């Protein structure tokens, strides 16, 4: 966010105070702080992760966006960058990591695999996109997306944060508690989403009956 956007328009500041005083809103200053220090969780799933690593190195330097502090623990991370093929075996772990991240938190699906299964979509062991389980904020197309594409996705995420309002965000809304915790899927003969247990039981019963 440029500095002029941080300042709330409509209030005339006297000339002699222009370099000293800024008038803004709580939403703007809160969003400005969060969008300028989005700390990604340090993990990767497949080839897209190599591009993510490249984006963090000196040539592309995500420090320019305040996003260089990759955290090795979900408890200190704001953003889950799902970079790579999402296999059924990995989904319970990814969901558990997501649940361990404190709010406010964001999910970015990087590349064709994380967004929709990619070239392995029909594979017996592949999930057709992490959005089947987690609420995705930004999708980045490509196989793999270049570091530039990743940075464009990060700018989209910043734009999304800019539009959030303290009175509407889910982490301050007690009624939306259910949407914050995602039940961890169970890996048996196939991957089962606990949110769909009733549906699975009904389908099994219909088949038997
Ligand atoms: S989208 Fe392409 S580059 Fe990225 S993990 Fe899938 S196959 Fe690899």
- In spatial order, strands of the major sheet run 1-2-3
**Rounded radius of gyration (Å):** 20 Å
- Number of separate domains: 2
How many helix segments? 8
Describe the main β-sheet briefly: 3 strands, parallel
Q: How far apart, in Å, are the first and last alpha carbons?
A: 60 Å
Instruction: Classify the fold: give the CATH topology of the largest domain.
Output: Rossmann fold
**Percent of residues in helices:** 25-40%
CATH class group of the largest domain: Alpha Beta
Percentage of residues in strands: 5-15%
Give me the CATH architecture of the largest domain, please: 3-Layer(aba) Sandwich
- Give the structural class: mainly alpha
Reading the helices and strands in chain order gives: HHHEHEHEHHEEH
- Which parts are unreliable, with pLDDT below 50 for 5 consecutive residues or more? none
Report the average pLDDT across residues.
89
Bound small molecules, by name, code or SMILES, are: iron/sulfur cluster
């Amino acid at each position: 966010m440029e500095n002029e956007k941080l300042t709330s328009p409509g209030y005339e500041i006297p000339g002699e105070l222009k370099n000293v005083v800024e008038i803004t809103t709580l939403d703007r200053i809160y969003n400005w702080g969060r969008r300028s220090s989005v700390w990604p969780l340090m993990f990767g799933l497949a080839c897209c992760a190599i591009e993510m690593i490249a984006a963090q190195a000196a040539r592309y330097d995500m420090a320019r966006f305040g996003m260089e502090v990759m955290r090795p623990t979900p408890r200190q991370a704001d953003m889950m960058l799902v970079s790579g093929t999402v296999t059924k075996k990995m989904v319970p772990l990814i969901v558990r990591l997501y649940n361990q991240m404190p709010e406010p938190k964001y999910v970015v699906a990087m590349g064709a695999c994380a967004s929709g299964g990619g070239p392995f979509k029909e594979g017996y062991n592949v999930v057709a996109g992490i959005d089947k389980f987690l609420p995705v904020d930004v999708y980045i197309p490509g196989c793999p997306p270049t570091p530039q594409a990743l940075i464009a996705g990060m700018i989209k995420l910043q734009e999304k944060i800019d539009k959030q309002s303290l009175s509407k965000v889910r982490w301050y809304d007690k009624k939306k508690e259910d949407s914050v915790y995602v039940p961890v899927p169970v890996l048996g003969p196939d991957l089962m989403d606990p949110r769909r247990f009733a549906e699975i039981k009904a389908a099994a019963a219909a088949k038997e009956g």
